[in-house]
Backbone:
């Protein structure tokens, strides 16, 4: 069964989003390493500890973790318990895998909604030492939720559309 053109285009767009997430998370990791290098240099060489590094590190860790988690869902490398999935017959296994994708989609939507609430609440609160709104920290949660919802929702849709042709054994043979 051939995939609809719209679904392919959305998938290509989400692949670009995945790449952007990886680029942001990688850049955040590099900045984290450089800032801790500056912290060590400031503390032991200049004898003047930069106090903003801890707050910047907490902010960067949020983006690294949440964007990395969203990419893991996109690449289908998130942590999963496969014991029950592997014990059931093939058609039940297909249905179970689709249900997991739908569950992830619902979880992502919940994160998105809760993240938006946190962003609204934190706009007037400032992060210490950085003097930026707390919203910048909760933006990572909100982004992750939206991306998890999109990534898993599209995968569930794709699997539903090709239910008869799709084989979990082929997809998960390298896992």
Residues:
């Amino acid at each position: 069964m051939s995939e609809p053109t719209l679904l392919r285009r959305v998938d290509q767009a989400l692949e670009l989003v995945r790449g952007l997430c990886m680029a942001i998370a990688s850049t955040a990791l590099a900045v984290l390493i450089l800032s801790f290098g500056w912290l060590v240099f400031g503390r032991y060489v200049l004898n003047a500890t930069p106090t903003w590094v801890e707050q910047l590190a907490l902010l960067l860790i949020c983006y690294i973790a949440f964007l990395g988690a969203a990419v893991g869902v996109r690449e289908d490398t998130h942590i999963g318990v496969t014991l029950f999935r592997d014990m059931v017959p093939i058609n039940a296994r297909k249905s179970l895998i689709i249900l997991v994708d739908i569950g992830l989609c619902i979880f992502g939507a919940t994160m998105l909604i809760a993240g938006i609430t946190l962003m609204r609440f934190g706009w007037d609160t400032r992060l210490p030492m950085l003097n930026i709104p707390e919203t910048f920290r909760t933006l990572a949660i909100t982004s992750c939720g939206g991306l998890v919802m999109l990534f898993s929702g599209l995968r569930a849709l794709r699997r539903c559309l090709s239910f008869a042709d799709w084989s979990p054994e082929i997809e998960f043979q390298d896992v």
Q: What stands out?
A: The chain has one domain: 5-171. The radius of gyration is 20 Å. The chain has a mean pLDDT of 89.
